[in-house]
Structures are given as structure tokens and as C-alpha cells.
Design goal:
The chain is mainly α. Helices cover 62% and strands 0% of the residues. The chain starts with a helix and ends with a helix.
Length: 146
């Protein structure tokens, strides 16, 4: 008799551990839930917006997500930040990396191209800084004269 009680208690304990607790739904938290169904077939538990759907399931959100995805891509952000004068240098370096990786050109030639591209970028930067300093000095001189 005692053994049966031990088995029954152990079974209850195991069932209690393995039985998942029901998730707290958004309606129990005091706000409306999204009306959409998730990919796995369960109802979405996210907070609903004015249209009855969450931000992820809202009918107008797909286009916004696509735009956000395109504009947040590293390559797009990088294109916007890199000055146009370096675009051809960047293209040359990309092509060189591709060719070195495919063994179309020797690595030494790739290294040479990279060093020359770096030197070209530094010379361009120095020239731009000198031009900027000259314009700032000229502006300061004009302000002193006034």
C-alpha cells in the first residue's frame, strides 16, 4: 500500500513538472491582444495597436519592415557614409579581394593594389583637409576685418 502511494506521489510530481503552465495572455494583463495567428498556429499574444493587430502583424507594417530592412543593411549605410570620391577605390578593392580569393591574381599584387589605394585615400584626405583649413582661415580673416 505504501509503495502505491509513493508511485502515485512520484507520478503527480513528474506530471506537475512536465505540464507546461499556461502563458499569461495579454488580455489577462489588461490590454487587447493581436488578432493574428502566428506561424506555428498559436494566437499572437502581443499587444494590439488601433487596427487590432500588433506592430509585426499590422497590414501596413510589411512595407515599413521592408523599407527598414533595406535602409538598415550595412552595405546601404556604408554607401551613404563613404564619400563619392572613394567609390571607385572601394570598387577596385572589392574586385581585387574577389580576384585574390579566386586565385585569379597573386596575393602580392592584391597587397600592392591595397597599399596604393590606401595611399591614394590618405593623399586625398590631406588635400581635402588642407582645402578646408584654407577656407576656414580665410573666413576667420574676413571676420577679423569686420
Amino acid at each position: 500500500m505504501e509503495r502505491r502511494k509513493e508511485i502515485a506521489d512520484e507520478t503527480k510530481r513528474l506530471l506537475r513538472v512536465r505540464t507546461p503552465r499556461p502563458a499569461v495572455g495579454a488580455d489577462q494583463l489588461g490590454y487587447p491582444r493581436c488578432n493574428a495567428t502566428r506561424k506555428d498556429g498559436r494566437p499572437c499574444a502581443a499587444r494590439a495597436t488601433k487596427d487590432g493587430f500588433c506592430v509585426g502583424h499590422s497590414p501596413g507594417a510589411a512595407e515599413a519592415r521592408r523599407k527598414g530592412g533595406r535602409n538598415s543593411a550595412t552595405s546601404i549605410r556604408m554607401e551613404r557614409r563613404i564619400p563619392r570620391r572613394y567609390a571607385s577605390v572601394l570598387e577596385l578593392l572589392e574586385a581585387t579581394i574577389y580576384k585574390v580569393d579566386r586565385d585569379e591574381i597573386p596575393r602580392e599584387k592584391g597587397d600592392t593594389i591595397a597599399r596604393l589605394a590606401g595611399a591614394m585615400a590618405r593623399v586625398t584626405d590631406v588635400a581635402l583637409f588642407e582645402d578646408r583649413i584654407t577656407r576656414l582661415e580665410k573666413r576667420l580673416e574676413e571676420e577679423r576685418v569686420r
